[in-house]
Amino acid sequence: MDIITMARELGKEIQKDPRYAAYKAAEAKADADQHLQDLIGQFNLKKIDLQNEIQNPDKTQESLHAIDTKLKELYAEIMGNESMADYEAAKSEMERMFGFVQQILNASINGQDPDTVEENTAGCSGSCSTCGGCS
Predict the structure, then answer these.
(1) Of 38, 70, 64, which Cα lies nearest the Cα of 52?
(2) Which is the most buried residue in 38, 60, 124, 132, by most CB within 10 A?
(3) Residue 12: pLDDT over 80
(4) pLDDT at 130
(5) Listed range (7-11, 44-48, 115-119) with the worst mean pLDDT
(6) Residue 87 contacts by C-beta under 8 Å, 6 or more apart in sequence?
(7) Is the pLDDT of residue 121 over 80?
């Protein structure tokens, strides 16, 4: 089996993992949550309002502050939504699993024995470009 076929097989195995199923279910729940979607829409419109106000030559600190305050309120409401909280938790688990897979691959590319790679719980993203060094 060549490396590309093995990568495809790995992808299939990832999709069988219960963390993937939980992630997809949480994503579907968040997508179907109309109140959450309305909040996200309002948030996006308010971001546009802020961008427009920043470019407005007649802007005031008060107008910027009012829009920023509303953005923060909407963000807090979005993040406090149960569907969003479930989605963020499931997404975090998927990212953790995927980060460990990347960590194993990166270590292997650097000549380490893949069977001896321990999960870096310090938050390894798997991207060496943003890394401060492995522990």
Answers:
(1) 64
(2) 124
(3) yes
(4) 59
(5) 115-119
(6) 26, 27, 29, 30
(7) no
